[in-house]
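Below: protein 1.
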Amino acid sequence: MKVLFLESHPMWIHGLPNGFRDAGHTVKVSGPLTRKKLPRLLRQFKPDLIISMGWTNEHSGHKQQWIKRFVGSTAIPHIYWATEDPTHHESFSLPYVRTVKPDFVFTICRSMIKDYKKIGIKAAHMDFGYHRKVHRKGKVVKRLRSNIGVVANGYSRILKIYPRHFRLKSLDHLIRPLVKDGTRVDFWGRQWDEMKPILGARIPRSWIHGYLPYPDAHKVYNSAKILIGPQNQLSQVTQRTYEILGSGGFLITSDTPEIRRLFKPGRDLVVSRSARQTRKLVRYYMKHPKERERIRKRGRRTVLKHNYKRRAQYMIQQLKKYKIL
């Protein structure tokens, strides 16, 4: 089957599209869309399936109109993967779906399925995953070496808008105590220099390394003794959870029901539910490298089943079940 992805962002073009390739499909990634490029891709590539996902530059208002016009005028099934649910469900995902009118929606949030069905769009749940060629075990990179590492954006501006967001609680018990204690944490990502109001202390500039190209993230995961991974929701896990484990990283994350459903704490990763517990875990595992290594190895084995080839196969299965394909 020929699958066209309407996307250009590095976070999305290296994951699910590669999973479809692994599953035996012919895949084309559009890159930045233009008014002339989209109809040309449809005409020349002749896809059997079109997939859009996330919230990137390819989802601007005028591009939504192009997709509605050019894709909507074909008989090709168009699938949207709503990766911004539930946080931006009302502000983006639902308006996007209402405008573009895809044939089917996959959402990372189970409770949102009913919302899509209410507006006449068939929907199913599909979680994040990882791709083994992108997030893989490798050598320690000297310039990226750290005791404790974080690869994420601070999202300081978004968190001001959502004061009850679970990510605030996650940051509060995972990162805030370390920063306030002066325990060095190396940060890769945007907006960490703006996090004093949230963390209660300013992160020293020497700890902040700025934007990290997505394909290089595994190098940090391989080079840190401990990785701290904040969670966004109680009922779902971040994509980085899979990517860190897939890269063989040792992960300390928030103790949530979904983490416990997918993984076994103390075997695949380590969980914390308080600032005191985070301090204790960091001190303990810094002194016990053999235990870190045991957990790294087991976590990497456990996460294998969450690769994007399996996600692609699941999508096809669901689309056949709902008679989209």
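Below: protein 2.
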Amino acid sequence: MLVVVDPGHGGADPGAVSAALREKDLTLAVALAVARELSLFRAAVRLTRQTDAAVSLADRVEMANAAGADLFLSVHINAGGGTGFESYVHPSADERTRQIRSAVHRKVAAVFTEAGFPDRGEKQADLYVLRRTRMPAVLLEYGFIDHPRDAAFLADAEVQGRLARATAEGVAEAFGLPADPSPPASSGSVGGPDLSEWAKEARDWAVRSGISDGERPKDPATREEVWVMLHRLAQKSGASG
């Protein structure tokens, strides 16, 4: 199955902003983590953006429709004085879409309620990305950026990982994917089966550019390796000092 994960906002559009946090940064961090978790369930994943890029709502929808995605999952952070988690489908959403949303909502809401945040419920709204996509589409509002406690919770990378895991588990439950996934064994080859679908374009670019050899896609990078890759990039862009 194919899931299109949509990190809200990006580029010149920061989304909601509070103190040092911007919605576009949090949505990207959570969406990338969701993509990683979904790959463990053997789901194919595409992201509407993988960097701080501006992508129109129409382009996000077109990407999902053209790909024939089985699910469109839009990641957002709320604002407006509230607290807690809520989810949305379009008012005209069919029963299958609502079932998928409920499965995801239950898993994610549990992370919030266990930490003392309210479950704000399963809602509906006539939002563009929910209205124009031609597959089940769910929009998730992971807490409120302008609530101090929500903001501190969401800024924690460990929490982001838990939210991503819960999101992926909800999708897996809704689509009958393996209940207890484990990372695939590394093949040691460039572009082997351990390479996540969402990372292929970036990997190919890094190899073509001579920045990385594309090996060991799941291994952690040492600081030395990161320095070397950044130095190669600077040399190619003429910015080496």
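Residues 95-114 form the longest helix (20 residues).
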